[in-house]
Amino acid sequence: MRNNGSDSSTNSPLDTFSITHSKIPPNEYPKDLSTTDADFINGTNEPHKIYENTQEDVSDKNTITAEQGFNEAVINLLVLLYQIDGKVTLTEQDLFDEIIATLNWHSGVSISAFINGAIHQARVAIDQLKAREYLFKLGTGLNYNPAQALEYAMDITEIDGKRSEEEIELLALLSNRVLARGLVE
Question: Compositional bias (Polar residues) spans (predicted)?
């Protein structure tokens, strides 16, 4: 075996790197999940932050999520209200389309696909005589902006000229129970 003039006890830089890193005690590993070992190689021993302003990012997402929850609850509410009397007029559909156009939609599901699902859910609730329970389930989303939700509900139920008994009952339930706390604040 030929010796290239190097001592076999001398380590290459890669061996030194591996040995150095293998000697780091586990209690000295970085605890910040947004850092890697490579962040410490620059010699500063300061981790490199990958994400900044994470608190602002999270609060922005929560705002969008609350707004999107409201949008979805409004669509479900309006569909329920215009279907509860068993007939959908062109004026109700036009107002529904106008309201939908004003919503700031942020979802991976298209708004038209969501509306189709809302129509099905409302039909099932009405057919099973569970419209009241369905309305209560919308409360959390609607209470993001209860005054706006009530205004939309009042508008959609009066646009065809007459409120049915079912519409009046659901409006009373909406204003006195579902949105009551939010409207008082």
Answer: 1-21
